[in-house]
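STRUCTURE REQUEST FORM
Protein name: Cytochrome C protein
Source organism: Hyphomicrobium denitrificans 1NES1
Requested output: structure tokens
Priority: standard
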Amino acid sequence: MTSHKIDWRFALLLGVLLIGISGVAEAAIPASSKAVKEEGGKYFDAKGDPTYKIGPDGKVDWYTFSGFRRYNGTCDVCHGPDGAGSSFGPDLTNSLKSLSYSDFQAIVSGGKQDVNTAQTLVMPAFGTNKNVMCYLDDIYIYLRARSDGALGRGRPQSHEEKSKDATDFENSCMGP
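Status: completed
Returned output:
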């Protein structure tokens, strides 16, 4: 008769892999990023900053999904796939660990220059680019989820439907 003992290390590894496949557990989301309020499908943290909502099945809110799409339409050219950085721009998943929402808005809209004897880093200003500014919260929300480790690399597998509020805002921001 064969004994089927499972090594505890194998069981632990299997558990970690299953969590990774099914999405991040709610407990893994930092308290500062937890959604405490929802308005028209958009979630906000206790400070009133936009944040993400990811279900136990990995389903993301519309704004996180939209942020993924918008990030990949503009930002990935310099900052690399999934915000992980490149030779042109820093790793935004690391930057957002210490960058406030208002600082993020200021840098994206006004640009940034960091010039010293070792390097020259220049972030162009996107303040007049509607394809960025109309979706700035979406991009921030997506990068915040990536920075917290709540969202893995690649396209989210499923997402909430786009709300009427999101459609109305997009139409008013992008104009006729």
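Reviewer notes: The helical segments are 8-22, 62-79, 92-95, 101-110, 130-133, 136-148, 164-174. The chain has one domain: 8-174.
Form closed.
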